[in-house]
Amino acid sequence: MLEYFSPIRFRRYFIKTVLEKPTQIGGIFLLSFAVALLIYFLLKSIANFEVAQLFSFTIGLIGGGCLLSSVVFGYFSDIASGASYLTLPASLFEKWLCAILIAGVIYTSCFLLYFRGLDTLFVHLYHLSLNNHDPRYREQYNSVFIFNFDGDTGLILIFFANAMAAMLVGSLYFNRAAFVKVALVVCGIYFFTFLLNYLISSFLFKGIFRAFPFHSISIKNGAEQGILALPLFWSNIYDAVASYGLPSALLIISFIRLTEKEI
Questions:
Q1: What is the mean pLDDT of residues 190-218?
Q2: Cβ(230)–Cβ(239) under 8 Å?
Q3: What is the DSSP letter of 48?
Q4: Residue 217: helix, strand or coil by DSSP?
Q5: What mean pLDDT is predicted for residues 2-30?
Q6: Which of 25, 99, 112, 239 could cross-link to 72 by cystine, CB 3.0-4.6 Å?
Q7: pLDDT tens, residue by residue, 117-146
Q8: Which residues is 226 bridged to in the sheet?
Q9: Is the separation of the CB atoms in 28 and 68 below 8 Å?
Q10: How many CA atoms does the CB half-sphere of 149 hold within 13 Å?
């Protein structure tokens, strides 16, 4: 068992990894936090709080997490650094687990805490700026509230888990510009599945104006609109695959690819 995982060895390797790339890892954290702040500030000024909260949270979480995932295995840009990385006194499982811990657990936790503080500050400042003698005060106060981590956030986290896992795989297959290359591949696959789903739905139904890939379609008939979704059984299977199956498979592939690198 100690051959694959040793708490003491893993702790030393984790500390070494963080201390070895403090500027790169810390820079990505700060960059994603700054981007989320900038998007939030701009969109709340030109749109509304709901749009600002959703876009700043989504872009900050997914963008920063994927960028970090693309660099945690960034040792294979040349033969020397790759060979040095593979000979470090840690098992492949510990190296793989360290990457997941940094990109998937630590970054996500830090960003959620940061965004909660950022969002609370902006909402609090907005509430303080209101005139409590205005007849619309209560309506204006209740129209802006702290971003809820339930609901749509679950879909964002699922997409983040898949994108992060795909980026880990891509960083092991693409030695250079992994972030750009994987982003292009993921976007290409998404738009292909979207188009395929739309074409199949258009062949079977009329009035299609929105089609979420293999999950649901929106149909318009005159002034009436409706959603045609998968049956509950197949919808649960789809959700399970998207939430757990696909990211797990990608993480396993990344471990297999890391093993192949050693060979």
A1: 74
A2: no
A3: -
A4: strand
A5: 84
A6: 99
A7: 999 999 999 888 888 878 888 888 888 888
A8: 219
A9: yes
A10: 11
What is the phi-psi region of residue 136: left when phi exceeds 0, alpha when psi lies from -120 to 50, beta otherwise? alpha
β 216-221/224-229 pair status: antiparallel
Query: 217 pairs with which residues across the strands?
Result: 211, 228
The rounded distance, in Å, linking the Cα atoms of 34 and 210 is: 33
Mean pLDDT rounded to a whole number for the chain = 84
% residues pLDDT > 70 (the chain): 89
Is the Cβ–Cβ distance between 5 and 93 less than 8 Å?
A: yes
Exposure b/e, 118-142, CB count within 10 A at least 16 = b: bbeebbeeeeeeeeeeeeeeeeeee
Helices in the chain by DSSP H: which ranges?
7-20, 22-46, 49-69, 79-86, 92-100, 107-129, 137-143, 152-173, 178-204, 232-240, 246-262
How far is Cα of residue 116 from the mean position of the Cα atoms in its chain? 17
The residues, ordered by sequence, that sit 6+ positions from 24 with a Cβ below 8 Å of its Cβ are 71
- φ, ψ dihedrals at 151, nearest 5°: 70, -120
Q: Is 84 exposed, middle or buried (0-12, 13-18, 19+ CB in 10 A)?
A: exposed
